[in-house]
Here is the input.
Amino acid sequence: MRPKQLTDFIGQEQLLEKNASLYKAMQNGLVPSMILWGPPGVGKTTLAHLIADQAQAKVIKLSAINSGVKDVRAAIDQAERSDNLFNKGKRPVLFIDEIHRFSKSQQDSLLGAVEKGSVQLIGATTENPSFEVISALLSRCQVYILESLSKDDLIRIVDQAIDKDVVLSKKNVQVTSYDALLRHSGGDARRLLNLLELACYQKQQDVEITDKKIAELVKHTAARYDKTGDQHYDIISAFIKSIRGSDPDAAVYWLARMLKGGEDIKFIARRMVILASEDIGNANPTALVLANSTFQSVQSVGMPEARIILGQCATYLAASEKSNAAYLAIDEAMAEVDRSGDSEVPVHLRNAPTKLMKEIGYGSEYQYPHDLPGSFIPADYLPEALKDRQFYLPTDNGREASLKKRLQNLWQKLKSYS
Here is the structure.
């Protein structure tokens, strides 16, 4: 069912329409080493093979899950000894799936070959390469972002498989409803086609695909934990909501489910860093420090010991006081910028690095708070049109309550923190 030519590839028009950069590079035979970044099942592996086919290049494939430095070096050696090396400029393609799982030393071992052009590297990742790929390697690669497939894309993928697949095209397949297929695929084309294949796996030539039939299939074949399917998103959602709801027991249970399923420990730790700021915030600023320390620690320690660090952090965050006031404040401030545009900076707050700027009054009425009792003076720090605007409304939770009390005492009648 995998497309054999570019015209059969569905989705990612932003990369593959005729005026797009990747399409032009493929047509000109000047495709750089690259990182394909996008959610599961949007065509990263398929696109890598199509790029290699277009260049008539040999593909050497590695999976970051079960390949070490030795395997990387062996693959590069194989590429350098390949018959088609530099044959009319056709470098072998080294395709690495889930490249974000490679350690720094594994990624370092790729640098020399990529730099001298022994191979054309194509890495596929579901994680942000800015965080997961070392800067030296990232600087030598073009990053292409693959977007989630639309409903229309997914329906076209089903119809194309029924029409062109060597097995399905010989059957009379009728889809009475696509709803269950699309819902249970979670936008993952690989999972979508697996469901379609299962639904058509029968001796009869006439096949009717209904929502009920798909629901029955899913019930009997669902994996205990699928890192690239619904379970991945559902369980991390349950984990985050358990911490937000201050239930450490539920938090460690969902954490255990993810760890037993082989979830990426950095993914879990990163989500806790976000939660520590979004859901705990200034009610307990230490939460962000601990979460960030957890993220750094699990990278150094690895499994199985990383489970202890993750468990400590998850239970601490769940038991902590909660506040989303800072999260709401920055979102409301950004929304205000969208509404009101670029409001002028008040003259007394402007920088005055030149004599002319000082002469026209930039910064002249600014009072330095540390020169005053309590290091505070009530002044206008927002643009004139927004001077009465409040974005941050601290709660009475945890340490944020003391911040609220201090702000109330400082600003008194000028601002309301009740």
Residues 83-88 have pLDDT under 50 and may be disordered.
